[in-house]
Predict the structure.
Amino acid sequence: MEENTKESEVLEKRKKKVFNFLKSKSTWIYSILLAAVIFLGVWIRTLNISKLKDITTGAWTLGPDLDPFLFLRWAKDIVANGTLFAIDHMRYVPLGYDTSSEMKLLSYLIAWFHDFLSLFIKNVTVTYSAVIFPVVGFAITGLAFFLFTRKIFYKENKHTRNIIAVLATLLFVLVPSLLPRTIAGIPEKESIAFAFMFFAFYFFLEAFTSKTKTKGFIFSILAGLSTGLMALIWGGFIFVFFAIPAVVILSYVLGKISWKEIYCYGIWIVTSFLVMMPFSTRYSFGTLVTSTSTGLAMGVLFLLIVSKAVLKVKKVESLREKTKIPKEIFSLIISVIILLILVLIILGPNEIIHLVNDVKNSLIEPMTSRLGLTVAENKQPYFNNDWKNSFGPVIFSGSGVGGIPLFFWLFFVGSVALFYSLVSSLNKKEKIILVVAYTIYLISIIFSRYSSTSILDGKSALSILVYFGGVLIFLISGIYVYYQRVKNKDLEVFKNFDFSYMLYFVILTLAIIASRAGIRLIMVLGAVSPIVIAFLTVKTSEKAFAKKDGKNKVIAVVLAIILISATAFTIYSNYQEQKYTATNFAPGPYQWQWQSAMKWVRDNTPTTAVFSHWWDYGYWIQSIGERATVLDGGNSLVYWNHLLGRLVLTGPSEKDSLEFLYAHNATHLLIDSTDIGKYPAFSSIGSDENYDRLSQISTFLMQESQTRETANETLYVYTGGAPVEDDFTWKENNSEIVFLKETSYVGAIFFRKDAQGFVKQPEAVVISGGKQYLIPIRYLYLEKELYDYKVGMNSGVFLFSRVSQGSNGAATINPVGAALYMSNRTINSQLVRLYLFDEKQAGFKLVHSENNYITNLLLSQGTQVGDFVYYNDFYGPIKIWEINYPKNITYKSEYLRTSFPDERLNLATPGVYGE
């Protein structure tokens, strides 16, 4: 027994020694863990590097994205000339683009990073530097995120805050929505802008929580510097200018702001502006004052200074004492009135109305322009699809609940838990009121836009009621608790609210609202949500294992194990998903087709050539093809998008299209196969105020099981769906039938060949009012021949090959297995006539056609196939025409106008396009 006791004592001593050693070396341990986590994120983001090669040159190229090619081209110019050109003549020909108003810092950072790499790597290219840059930027972002997270929990003990920060960073580097913006080969703005955002928040927290003015001022300068640099890279800097003023004014109301904090806040603003204003003309002082975001920041500074000042006026203080209103609220009311009077005098009432409308639109309909609605990443997401898929893994997907997004629910519960911790100094009743109100508030914001088929579709009256109702409940609950404390003269408790928690909740709220507003902003919520998941997991586990033995401890430990398991499973699942995605995040068949087409452009067109096309491809033509363009992804001159969509792509007149192109010095026209699918987008943008051009080109597929052969003919049936876009009448059995566009659509197409193989006029199955009608279709395009039957619906059918893969893996080809249906609005468009029908026009000479990957693969196997194929989607060539202008062409200067003559051409009509 004595020996066992001695052994136990020795073992216990050893345990203490090990524990004390680890405790003394904890800083190193956490640093090593953080380094390992960041290394994991870096490693994942470099899995695609070997695939980032141009198939025509073997040289490095960027990944499958658009905007980074602009940043690369600018970086190359900076490396070559030391500075970026004042006017970019490759863009918006013939006017060019004034770069002084652009956010140029990203391109400069790539160029400086290239100069740095050149010191260590001989003959390194700017493209390779751009490939690596986002990975390095993400590593810096990981460090900034860690520091910010650890600072949020600075009141926790050293080990708890470090563990939370390391775990949050591990979750952060594995967030799926961040990968496409931070992976090798995609030098996007967010890859480094997020670093400056987290540094801004971190330094600001350091400033506000520092015990000395000197430290506070230094950190305020660093916060302003980070904010200003972020503003020179990414428009997302407004998150900082919304979050910090909001939490500061809330802190003032709660009695937590002294002159030291006001000085820090003012230094942050001044430093930010001093960084922003000299380097971009978009940040003039007038613009900053009137902007919703930066103007808010300046307005809050004014309110703080005036509020503090008026409290020193004895008459004001004596009046306040009579009203018994808290001094912070009373002084704030006076300063708000003064500010409103000044704004009305200086800016006028219209500016206030404009700002209110901006806020309203940001909350309900962030995108009101036609262009904005046609950009996929600008579409408002739904919880049931976009949120659920972005915040997975989704478990129990086969169950009746439709799948549970684990990351989302961990974040949801974690945010409620952290909010409870924020208000923990209140009494039990107050905590219950506020926590329940906050939960309702979260549910209302997130689930009021559940799905497009739900009554909570984000646009219905009930959705808006739920959205604002939840916000109102939370505000009323907060005001009620505050009012009760005012009555009881017990406001000191609010000073116990943790400022770092308050800042985080403001950031989280903004991220949720932003994620609800646009798919592309889901990544912002993805970036900040890991913090509450780590908090929930670590604090729950800490409390559970610290409890004394008993029933409550068992329950707490079980709950902790469930949370640890759920978090671990989330980490593992996201790791597997990111590893797979990253490995394959590289140019594929579509990009290879473009690389080949751009090689032809470089080799066969003069360097002075100017290309016209839909805006999506501008940066590729400028960077890969090295030729100037009329439009590009910057969309700085949206009216030109309207004109090109109206006159060149959807218009029926060769003369009109040539006059537009002539005004822009265009030498070549390019049309890509994806323009078929984009027809609704550019026809919407190119329409008049009544959407006269809005249309689509629909795909119908042959149902071979319904093919019928008789002695005289063979009937082929194609199924699909296409709207009837204009009302029309049709005579049948001596009676006129009216087909209304609101209640009619084309559900199928019949195509016949007689026994000798001659084609017959196709027919459309038009469904209206629950009845089916068989109506002839006027046009048919088959085997490079256009048939005009002169009668029938003024629409057309384009038949082409369909490739299918059998169970044995072998490909089978049906030369007429797929069809494109073109309505009366599309059948005579320049796009259809030039691209699909291959119409010969005097003004356009086809000089190159770059086959798609599927066609090339079939041709290499000796299989004869046309230019267009259907293989789970529509595939076609990239066609390039040389433009030949007639001698008597008219120059129209109005085609160089840079603004809409009628704003109705720009604004979207609710319900017409998109959702």
Remarks:
- The CA atoms of residues 75 and 281 lie 20 Å apart.
- The longest strand covers residues 793-805.
- The longest helix spans residues 551-583.
